[in-house]
Each structure stands twice: as C-alpha cells, then as structure tokens.
Amino acid sequence: MHLRPLSIVAAFGLALSLGCGLGASEDAPNKDEASDKADADNSGKDDGAGEASSSDSSWQDGLPESKHVDVATDETLESIFDYLNELTSEQKHDLAEMFIGLRDAQYKVMSDYDSGKGGKMGGKAGGKSGGKSGGKAGGKAGKGGKAGGGYPTTVFRAVDQLNQTFLTDGKKLMRSDQTDSWNDCAALIDLNPPELDKSSGGKQTGGPEEGKAAPEFSLKTMDGKSFSLSDLQGKPTIVQFGSYTCPAFRKEAPKLETLERQYGDDINWVLIYGYEAHASDGSRVSDENIREGIDYPTHKTYEDRVEMAGVAKDKLDLDYLIVVDDMKDTVTNGWDGHPNRAFILDASGKVVDKQQRIIASNVATTLDELL
After folding, report:
1. 314: buried, middle or exposed (CB in 10 Å: 19+, 13-18, 0-12)?
2. CA-CA 20 to 30 A from 67: which of 116, 221, 282, 297?
3. Strand (E) or helix (H) holding 290
C-alpha cells in the first residue's frame, strides 16, 4: 500500500444512505420483491446506499478528465479505497472527484513554481477542488522562479495545505462507522505527487545543505543544562524536530525509539522540541487529536514548552536526549526543521541526509551506510 497530508467539493448528503429502509413496510417482502432486490444487489448498482461491489466500476461514470489521474489504476486512490470500509459507489465517485481536483491543484502549484507564475495559480487549477485555498497556496508557492534540482519548502507547504483540506473535506463524506478508518488513513497515507517527493528524494529541501557542516546551535535540556550540537561530534547524529500535537510524530515515535535503542552507543540522537504543530487553540487543529482527546494549547511561556516536552517524553517513552527551542523557535526556523523533520549528520558533523518527514526505515538505511 502506498502510504506517506480549497474547498474541494461540498460533502454530499448522506441522509439517503443512512436512512435506507426507513418507512419501509414491516411486512416480509414477497418472492418477486426479494428476487428483484437480489438482482439489484448483484448488479453492483446500489444507488449510493450500500457497499459497492469490488467489480463495480459505475462510480467512475461522469468523473472529470485529468492528465494526472487514471482512477482505474492510481495507487494512492486505490490505497484510500482499501483503507476504508464499505464505501458506497457514490462515496467512491465523490472521493475520486476530490482526488482528481487535488492532483490537478498540486501539479499546478509545482508547474507555476517552475515557470515563476505564482500569482496566477490556484482558482481554476483545482476545479471543484482548488477554490480559494488552492489559489492562496499556489500564490505563495510560485514566487521563486525555477525549481532547479528540487522544490523548496514553500512548495511542500502549499501542497500540504491542499492535502489537509482534502483530508478534512473527505471526512465529511464518511458515515459514523467509517470515521475511525478515515482518521487512520489520513494519518498514514502519502498524498504528495510522486514527482514532488522524487524531486528531493522525499527529503527536506530547506535548512542546512547536504554535504556541508551543520550550523552550531546551543539550547537547554529539559532540566536546564546547556547543550551545544558540537558536543555530539564523533558519531553519526540524528537531529529530529517534533511536538506532541503532531499525529505523525506520535505515530512514528515508537519505531524511532526502537531504532535508537537498536543502534545504542554507536549514534547520537537529539530531539529539538519546538512549537506545537496542532495546538488546540491554533488554526490547524487536528481531527485525530480531537478523537484521541489530545488538547494542548499554544505555549505561552518557555516553561510551558518545557512542560510539553516532558509530556512527549513520558507519554511516548522517549529515552533519547531532548532539548527545548526558545520561544522564537530560533533553531527550528533556522534549520527549517518544523515538526516531524530530521537531519542526519556524519561523525564529523556534516549533513548527509535530510528528511521532510522522518521515517524510521529511512533513518536506518542512512545509518547503515555510515556505520
């Protein structure tokens, strides 16, 4: 499964599917009626009221054409469908239409960056999916001329905004019995176009450059002791950024912690705790956080931030070193190290790998090459 995130389309009313059978006669159906019902079920034509047959392709009818998506073979769309339970034909159709709009808007962001036409992107690009959010995101992303060897962080952020809106609007199409699987899917699925990740090797593009020495910084540990990056030279070092309100950070934490224990004294590992990615009083409240009862507001003081670093350490059972960024997020911004990103340094302190989203298996691959 391919898993690694605009008002897209108004959520279709689910009253028909949820209310199926209401008002029906309490009398048992006669033989002819039962036969007709069976024929209808077997045909895969459920009018949006039941689970679509796996061989039923009627959901593809009437979808807009797109040079970026073949709905019959697209792996990401297939992964979304596979992750969810009992999708109706109507839901499949609506999700596919939203996904086509998402892809068109994403590629418009990338294309307009390449051609330096940031101010013109968005609105039309996403069709039903683009809307105002697509235009705004695209405008911000397109201010940099040609992409060269890879796209900058502004493009990743613009695409991420489109991804988040797709996930928010897609959830509106789900029945109550589907919301848990949708939330799980939203946390794990990689919605980025393959070409976007490929352009930077799926890696972070901002911050310290690969092949160059990582810039020095000094912060304090959770117990107030001074720490400098240069203290860790002599071994490969993972510099990770994170916050507890980032669902992706929480989900990957157990794998990363296992990895850190596996390599033990052969490596250094430091987590820089900065701002809350999805503070409960911020503009990017996470549906998954709401579902899990994770309610932590924006840090008002440095002491608040230290306390939240302690929450992450305790709840995620983190053993590696944690240092706390200042309230201006000096190191986080300087390294372009927003939550769930990472840099891997060699024993001399030179950057050898940058990851847009830290993944344990990718870290292990790089460490194995260094050790």
Report:
1. exposed
2. 116
3. helix 287-292
178 and 273 fall within a common domain: no
Q: What is the CATH number of the domain that holds 255?
A: 3.40.30.10
Q: What is the DSSP letter of 272?
A: E
Radius of gyration over every alpha carbon of the chain, rounded to an integer in angstroms: 24
pLDDT over 60 (residue 244): yes
Would you say residue 16 lies in a domain? Answer: no
Same domain, 105 and 150: yes
**Strand partners for 121:** none
CA neighbor of 202 nearest in space, from 213, 210, 191, 194 = 194
Check: pTM over 0.90? Answer yes or no. no
Question: What domain range includes position 250?
Answer: 218-370
Confidence of residue 364 (pLDDT cuts 50, 70, 90): very high
Number of independent structural domains in the chain:
2
What's the residue count for the chain?
371
Q: What is the pLDDT of residue 151?
A: 74
**Is there a contact between 245 and 294 (Cβ–Cβ < 8 Å)?**
yes
Phi, psi dihedral angles at 182 (to 5 degrees): -65, -45
Q: What share of the chain is helix, strand, coil (3-state, %, to 5)?
A: 45, 10, 45
Contact present, 255 and 318 (Cβ < 8 Å): no
The values of phi and psi at residue 114, to 5°, are: -60, -40
Q: Which H or E run includes 160?
A: helix 153-171
In a domain, 172, yes or no: yes
Cβ distance 233 to 220 under 8 Å?
no
Q: Looking at the domain assignment, is residue 12 inside a domain?
A: no
Q: Which token pair is 360? A: 């344990």
% of the chain with per-residue pLDDT over 90:
45
